[in-house]
Amino acid sequence: MSDVVELSSAPVSLLGMNRRMLADWLVSQGEKPFRAQQLMQWVHQRGIIDYAQMTDLSKVLRAKLASLAPIRLPQVKVDQIADDDTRKWLLEVEGGNAIEMVFIPDKNRGTLCISSQVGCALACTFCMTAQQGFNRNLSSDEIVGQVWLAQHLLRQAGWGEKPVTNVVFMGMGEPLLNVNNVFPAAELFMDDWGYALSKNRVTISTSGVVPAMDMLSERLDVSLAVSLHAANDALRDVLVPINQKYPLADLMAACHRYIKAYPKRHVMFEYVMLKGVNDSTKHAKEVITLLQGLSAKVNLIPFNPFPGTDYQTTPWALVLDFQNRLMASGLQTNVRRTRGDDIDAACGQLAGDVADRTKRTTQVRQTTVKFEHHSLREKR
Ligand code: SAH
């Protein structure tokens, strides 16, 4: 056992460490690397974060962990349950910020939609999160903390031992602009000693950050979703402005490289249906042409409106017509059911509470409650 306790200064964020990081850190502390397994099982599987309860660790190590690596979790500020059992939490994270997280229960699965950033810098015109501006990346322990907390609260609420079966990075933020923290977190979700989710049940969704898509293809075997929303550059430049930097040809090339790296997988394309904007027969044909030859599925998302937006939802019959056209071409296409809209928990409605934003494209009144941490922030 080493005596380096006093030498370390900043607290270590144990919650967000993947297996390798944790083993390396333990070794740097003079511990055996297999302690990583014990620690991960306590924290992520049994949901125990009080080191004193980790009875198979020595008392000395427990004390050392408590002093060097105290575990901090996001604080629940609002907890709402929708009519369809979808549950949304507003979580306070450091810096006077709040993020949102949503649990979507279904017959055989429980999907947790988590945030990767406070706000978002990408300014997609139909997304409420974009209207909030961007503050900062979430750390890996803030990302993992969401899953830990949801698991804990859902177990308490009687949802069984493993309430979260799927994790999707589809909350606030662009995960592929925060790979240093998102990748270790995703690894932990799939690790047998961590949350032990199947690798088909962890999904990273991107608006098309091409270089980071390649990093993913090289390093992280995880499900990939791409927010497409238009299959021609002129329209996508407007709806998803990052398209101006990485146009469709580059985006599709990156998708093909992903499939080359993981031949058994497919790319899930998300397509928000905006009335009179991207929902015509011509648009359907463009999607079909663009996705030809790629192992792909399409998820049509009826647009979820939010205060201040001019976009409207495509009428249901037209959504089905669009779906039928894609299906007729052989593309597997689902229409995503809107969930939790009575509590603003549906896709694109996550607003959180973003302090000191760097950009605000439109003034949108928040539908969530304001909290006292505003005054805390002013004191800082
Ligand atoms: N930044 C990543 C992760 C967010 S995922 C990405 O863009 O993929 C959130 C999904 O909901 C994206 O597909 C997004 O385009 C979609 N979305 C955003 N606003 C929406 C809205 N108002 N109605 C329906 N879907 C929306």
SSE order and pairing:
Layout (H helix, E strand, L loop, with lengths): L18 H10 L6 H11 L13 H10 L6 E7 L5 E7 L3 E9 L4 E4 L3 E3 L8 H4 L2 E4 L2 H17 L9 E4 L9 H12 L11 E5 L3 H10 L3 E5 L5 H7 L8 H14 L5 E7 L7 H11 L4 E7 L13 H13 L3 E4 L37 H7 L1
Parallel strand pairs: 4-7, 7-8, 8-9, 9-10, 10-11, 11-12
Antiparallel strand pairs: 1-2, 2-3, 3-4, 5-6
Helix pairs in contact: 1-2, 5-6, 7-9, 10-11
Bound molecules: S-adenosyl-L-homocysteine (SAH).
The site of S-adenosyl-L-homocysteine (SAH) has 17 residues, from strand 8 and strand 10.
Task: Jot down its keywords.
single chain; 12 helices; binds S-adenosyl-L-homocysteine; disordered N terminus; disordered C terminus; TIM Barrel; DNA polymerase, domain 1; 380 residues; alpha/beta
- Our Rg estimate from Cα atoms comes to 21 Å
Number of domains: 2
Spatial sequence of strands, sheet with the most strands = 1-2-3-4-7-8-9-10-11-12
CATH class of the largest domain: Alpha Beta
Fraction of helical residues: 25-40%
Ligand types: S-adenosyl-L-homocysteine
User: Which assembly state applies to the chains in this document?
Assistant: single chain
Calculate the mean pLDDT score and round it: 89
**CATH architectural category of the largest domain:** Alpha-Beta Barrel
CATH topology of the largest domain: TIM Barrel
Termini Cα gap: 39 Å
Please provide the ordered H/E string of secondary-structure elements. Answer: HHHEEEEEHEHEHEHEHHEHEHEH
Question: Approximately how much beta-strand content do the residues carry?
Answer: 15-25%
Say how many strands there are.
12
Largest sheet: 10 strands, mixed
